[in-house]
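Hi L.,

You mentioned the student needs an example of a multi-chain input paired with its predicted structure. This one should do, with 523 residues in total across all chains.
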Amino acid sequence: MTDKTSSFSDLGAADPTTEPFWQACAERRLIVQRCTACGARQFYPRPFCLACESGSLDWVEVEGFGTIYSLTTVRIPVSDELVPPYLLALVDLDEGPRLLTNIEASTAEIGDRVTLAWRARDGLPPLPVFRLAGSRS
Amino acid sequence: MPHALTTSPVYIAGVAETALGKVLDQSEFSMVALAAREALAEAGLGLRDVDALFTNYMGEEGSVQLGEYLGLAPRYAESSDMGGASFEFFVHHAMAAIAAGRCEVALIGYASRQRTRRNRKKAAPALDGSLSAQFETPYGIHFPIGHYALSAARYMHQYGATLEHLAEVAVAARQWAALNPKAWVRDPLSIADVMASPMLCDPLRKLDCCLITDGGGAIVVTSRDRARDAAKRPIRVLGAGESHVQWHVAQCPDLTVTPGRASGRDAFAMAGISACDVDVFEPYDNFTHAVLLYLEDLGFCGKGEAGAFVAEGRLRPGGSLPSMTSGGGLSYCHPGALGILLLVEAVRQLRGEALDRQVPGAEIAVAHGTGGLAFSTASTVVLARD
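Structure written out for the whole complex:
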């Protein structure tokens, strides 16, 4: 299996505006949009800057560090892919954008520092998830 | 200069519930039809008088499908999806349309058999190319308990609210339900019972979450002139407001604040009231902590103070802010979209016809709806007996 296909949009796993994001994930790089006018970072991608309304944006890779803004332990079955209990979190990247993600740990707290990790998916680009900073991947 | 909506007063002239709980002998459309006839009879009107129709979740072009069923060809119609708060939005829109002369008799209707049909979704779609499928579904977020749990966890972390504070909301709702023969659950409930119920998504336990029942209702909004033959006292729509914010939970900058702050500000300003004037509060109690956020956002207490505010029993029967007086979504009925039943109960309280659960001397009531995923939408309606 290869992480990279010609178009994740064809699989319904991306749309034309998010294709660059998922192609980067296929290379295990996490990228967000940066406004070339005001420097704001934003995620998910849009064809304009939410902060200054400029239409000029590019993509930048983030360092992969963040802080847990909120956290819940899901104890009821939701999908076939994830077996409860598991940690569902909102992580604020140091660069600014907030992501919904999973924390790959049995427990964590709001305010904990986390680092980027990757969860492989069958036939789809790996998914950005996080683990507690200082823990081993 | 007087506001157009104060010089052309608008009233709710009829309300009705559909069959509630578990409905095996009706369809959603027949439920709305029966409730509409009952509400119109209260207003002294019939279906032939209806020239505006508002509904949500009654089909892909909801007002068209419901309109056909009822034999209507409205000149003003809407089936916007504002989630469970749609019906408060509809009162706001109907109020403006009637005051502007675009229609005279607005019917708002809704019914669901989500309990009988067992058709609630647990998750957003997978692999349909939507933003939800890309950025929410893969992480296993329960729809909507996961979204609300992230809000509750952050709120408790930031302001020190406790699980007991959340449980008090469920207990207050149950005490009201015990006074309402139509409530789905009426057994006594203690803080300890709530705390002992199974954890679903921390910190939300089973009894922090609303019911899943069948139900719905109908409401007639009209002018003072068209309400002159009403069989029951028409209730004035004194003010209304609305707002909506994020859909995806990660797009919300502050999960401890809801769009109710904006809808409440606008509704109270139009009504010329403040929180201290409210006699009865009908909040959209889909989750216990949600009620705490509304209390703060509407100005009943300061930010972060709602836990202590409810802990004194203020929301219970006999409390200083009677709230969820039907038993609410937590104990009376939650048909997927609760907002219409908040309006029905508020009107009954202001008419003085709420029987054992009547709040003595109630003159001003607030129905506050929310919808979407963890406070996406909000609409506030201020009602008054005049």
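You could point out the following to them. The helical segments of chain A are 19-26. The radius of gyration of chain A is 16 Å.

Best wishes,
N.
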